[in-house]
Amino acid sequence: MAGQSFTRRRVIALLALTSLILVTLDLRDSGITNGLRDAFAVMFRPIESATRVITNPIRSTWNGIVNYDDVAEENRRLKDLVARQEGATIANIAGIREAQELLALNGLPTLAGIESCTAQVVGSTPSNFSQTVEINRGRTCGIRVGMPVLNAAGLIGKVTEVYNDRAVVMLITDPAYSLSVKVVNTPPTTTAAPGRGSTVETTTTLSTTTTSTTTTTIYIEGFQPGATVATSPPTAPPTLPDGKPVTPNTSPLTVPPGADLPLRETGALEGRGLNRLPIVRFIENQPRFGEIAVGSPVISAGGATSLAPPDIVVGTVARVVNRSGNLGPILEVTVAANLENLNFVRILLYQPTTERIAP
Amino acid sequence: MIERIVAIAENAYTRLFLIALLFLALQTTILNELRPFDVSLEIMVLLAASVGLARGSEVGAIAGFMIGLMYDMVLTTPLGLGAAVFGIVGYLAGSVHSFVHEPTWWSRVLLGAGASGVGMVLMAGAIALVGTDGIFTTKVLTIALVVAVFNAVFSLPTERLCRWAMVKEKAVR
């Protein structure tokens, strides 16, 4: 009996050592652990699929009991939202096409030039300590580790594991996720000489948040910011919001909207997991950039080593935490995509250089 | 050949492996979606604790390691981390149980729930230990509490299942 106990203790010590070796191998991205996971997945998937089918009635009953009111309310809200968005979409498509043409004309990378693969979310993480979802496309669709994943609203995460017909996507709220982003700030307020300026009240609606900002733009005779002005005077002269007529311009040039140009600053987006908003660090405290407004859009920065191509919508600034001295602020970001209700997603077949495996 | 297959099928750990597969399938499907208080219920840790309660600390540690390793296969956490944590949970459940003189049904329920809660805290600690930030927050306490309460409900049937699965081979024959 004592001998058996001694043997078991040796087994326990061996198991502790094994787990230590496995953790080390996995953290060093060993092929052995990936192979083990792949083999287990092949064996386990049929059992999981069968269980999913069998337990579906229980799941539906639970959702009916717990989520019915929320779903009905969401349905009403979404119908309103769809009605509002339909008009805006047409205008946006035209704008996006123009922007892509301009980027292509200048030899800059655009999302339109990147192939993509559409997949459906088939499950989420069973753990409380990581934020991942599983999608029903994998290697056969061209998906590789590191590729960015987005849905109609914006970026949702990156691919972390790939099987033949499945892949695991780490969401941007996961504590292990980090991405280089740009914060597009509204320009700082400019003061104009009395009687020479016009105050414009603008209201921006961003998903669920409505912000109201007041900006003052300088009116310069003969210039109309952001507009192509014809050489011949228009039949009906344009007017300012206060009703005063705008002096016609005789210049044939397109004048860039100078002070209205949005200012950009880069930082690093980090997930914080467990129902906490991701944050953006390393924003420089520059006077030119001014106070960052709540609701300012946050988009991917791109670049040679970035995990995602540029200009993918990530979300909006939800809160600005100012810090003392030269330390820039920390921004809490409301993610544009609803990560709790993911269905169809798009995987950009763009593999960052940092995630490529050397041949 | 057939005798050998039968012998493998009769092995206690083979039975436990099959039960763990079933539990894992439930964990990744239905329990993954029923999230009371926004917490994913964890029955894999209950299984590890139940083996410890049913068959003592040493068997609990070995079975916990096996169950944890299976759970690691479907998670994105480093392979072997869950195995180590569940091994500890199985060992602790078995050790504490051995101190209870004539355990009653409610003491077994309490131990199952307690081991599950401790397992969740240990898991968060282990993930933080391998370098992931933002895990060890007050939310961990909520997770531990919800998981403990849920697992308390299923503690007795799971322990009975483990007692059946881990019965000594001679008794089966």
List keywords for this structure.
heterodimer; A: 359 residues; alpha+beta; 2 helices; 14 strands; globular; B: 173 residues; mainly alpha; Arp2/3 complex 21 kDa subunit ARPC3
Summarize the structure in words.
- The complex is a heterodimer of chains A (359) and B (173).
- Chain A is α+β, with helices and mostly antiparallel strands.
- Chain A is 28% helix and 26% strand.
- In chain A, strands 1-2-5-4-3-14 form a 6-stranded antiparallel barrel.
- Chain A starts with a helix and ends in an 11-residue tail after the last strand.
- Chain B is built from 9 helices and no strands.
- The model of chain B has no long low-confidence stretch (mean pLDDT 87).
- Classes of the chains: A alpha+beta (359), B mainly alpha (173).
- At the A-B interface, helix 1 and helix 2 of A face helix 2, helix 3, helix 5, helix 6 and helix 7 of B.
Q: What is the element string of chain A, with H for helices and E for strands?
A: HHEEEEEEEEEEEEEE
Note poorly predicted spans of chain B: none
Strand segment count of chain A: 14
Using the CA coordinates, give the radius of gyration of chain B: 16 Å
Q: Which regions of chain A have little confidence, pLDDT < 50, spanning 5+ residues?
A: 190-235, 248-259
Strand content of chain B: under 5%
Helix content of chain B: over 70%
Strand content of chain A: 25-35%
The largest interface is: A-B, 53 and 51 residues
Query: How far apart are the first and last residues' alpha carbons of chain A, in Å?
Result: 55 Å
Helix content of chain A: 25-40%
Outline type of chain B: globular
CATH topology of chain B: Arp2/3 complex 21 kDa subunit ARPC3
Query: Strands across the major sheet of chain A, in which order?
Result: 1-2-5-4-3-14
Task: Provide the structure class of chain B.
Answer: mainly alpha
Structural class of chain A: alpha+beta
- Tally of helical runs of chain A: 2
In CATH, what is the class of chain B? Mainly Alpha
- What overall geometry of chain A do the principal axes of the alpha carbons give? globular
